[in-house]
Amino acid sequence: MKLTIGEKVSYGLGAVGKDMVYMLSASYILYYYQDILGVSAVAMGIILMAARVFDAFNDPIMGVVVAKTKTRWGKFRPWLMIGTILNAIILYLMFAAPPALDGAGLVAYAAVTYVLWGVTYTMMDIPYWSMIPAFTEGGKEREGLSTLARSCAGVGSALITIITMICVFKLGQGDERIGFKLFALIIAIVFIVFVAITCANIKEKSTVDMETPSVGQMFRALISNDQAMAVVLTIVFINCSLYITANLVIYFFKYDFGGEGWYNSYTIFNTFGGAMQIISMMLFFPLFRKFLNTIQVFYVSFAMSILGYASLLILTFTNMSNVFLLFIPAFFIFAAHGMLSVLTTVFLANTVDYGELKNNSRDESVIFSMQTFVVKLASGVAALIVSICLSVFNLSNDTSDTSAVVEAVANSSIVGLRMTMTVVPIAILLVAVFLFSKKYILTDEKVAEIAEKVKAKREAESK
Question: What does the longest C-alpha to C-alpha distance in the chain come to?
């Protein structure tokens, strides 16, 4: 039976709330602690990266826990709801650092809350994405659900990039510390409500019985699924390139573009970029799919992203007087990332059938736990690169007068910021293209062939 409109909407709302929370953490946690609270950029970079190393052990184990779960509410929904509530609480605490803390105490608070945020996000994220193979039989329905979920996730991410700084300034009446605290509280509440709607209206329509593996068996299963490994590594590089830019763009507008109303220009830029990301998921991707297969759309998206970064680099060295000129690179970068987000989810879902046929094991929770881990790993690597950039090029909140900061920042620092924000992502994307082209073999025709073989295999085993 096909998914109903109500089920699709409910599932999509969960993605909106989930990615609002993720984008708030991924894009603003470094800015909050480094630029507002004064924590060392290098210290924050180490914290964010160390948390991702911890996730290397936590995420796969959570995948096994989900796989072992059997309740009357299903395999996924209990963990989805529990993880959401805990993650929402930690999110608020993370952006509500006690004013009495400073120095080592503040660093410790940031480290503990961020690690706990990562743990609870995993608890919720793995079961959410693992629902896709359990809800669909493959092919167009799976691609459609993946597209919907990623489109809604893009809406959540775009909303955060669009409204955060404006809301922070208004809620805090100019005090960014108070503004972030209140804004995080609002987002946490919205998150819980949206996921509650998902849990209330979504049920597993088909779950293949499977042996739950040990941690050792799980790693062997992942290693043996070469297509899953190819996809997750590609996801690391794609997201790392985006997060480097996402983390640095606020510093670009504050210290390079400058002006007393820099956050208005920042918001205008993100509003356009967020809109392009949503439109690319909902309109551009389906349009390209009418003429191209998924792998061809993938390469087109890569080319668009690289073109966007190149044009951004050129513009930063030529004309910085008009924010609307920056819409040119924003169009290519955000539109490309929107389509890449959909495609990587589709590709990863396809590797579940591939693994079942090749290894006689359908490890959707295990495989999707890798997606959760690699996305967070990418954000950690990006944060470390960004923190090194901020430290080396001496970009920090030295004064409340932003225009004075812009004048005081050395030209070499500005050049370093621009190069890190553009050239480094281009290099990372080129590595991703090379890796993907050499390793990924699941064309649309191959996926359809595998789906038929899996279906026939199940029918034979059921007799």
Answer: 77
Q: What is the H or E stretch that residue 442 is in?
A: none
pLDDT in tens, the chain (463 residues): 677 788 888 889 999 999 999 889 988 998 899 888 988 888 888 888 888 777 766 766 776 677 677 766 677 888 899 999 999 999 999 999 998 888 889 999 999 999 899 889 988 888 887 777 666 665 566 667 776 887 788 788 878 888 898 899 899 988 899 999 999 999 999 999 999 999 888 777 655 443 444 556 556 666 788 888 888 888 889 989 988 988 888 888 888 887 667 888 888 888 898 788 888 888 898 899 899 999 999 999 999 999 999 999 998 888 667 888 899 999 999 999 889 888 887 888 788 888 888 877 777 666 766 666 677 778 788 888 888 888 888 766 544 444 444 444 557 778 888 899 999 999 999 999 999 999 898 888 888 888 888 778 777 777 6
Q: Please report, as a single letter, which amino acid is at residue 322.
A: N
> How many Å apart are CA 379 and CA 125, to the nearest integer?
15
Structural contact between residues 301 and 288, judged by C-beta atoms closer than 8 angstroms: no
pTM: 0.75
Neighbouring C-beta atoms of residue 441, cutoff 10 Å: 11
Cβ neighbourhood burial of 72 (10 Å; 0-12, 13-18, 19+): exposed
Helix, strand, coil abundance in the chain, percent, nearest 5: 85, 0, 15
Concatenate the DSSP letters of all residues of 18-51 into one string: HHHHHHHHHHHHHIIIIIIS---HHHHHHHHHHH
Alpha-carbon distance of 297 to 292, in angstroms, equals: 6
CB distance 87 to 120 below 8 Å: yes
| Interacting residues of 146 by C-beta distance below 8 A, sequence separation 6+ | 132, 342, 345, 346, 349
Look at the chain and count its residues: 463
Return d(Cα 344, Cα 340) in angstroms, integer: 6
On the CB side of 447, CA atoms within 13 Å amount to 21
Give the residue from 62, 71, 85 showing the smallest Cα distance to 196.
85
Residue with structure tokens 């796969």? 60
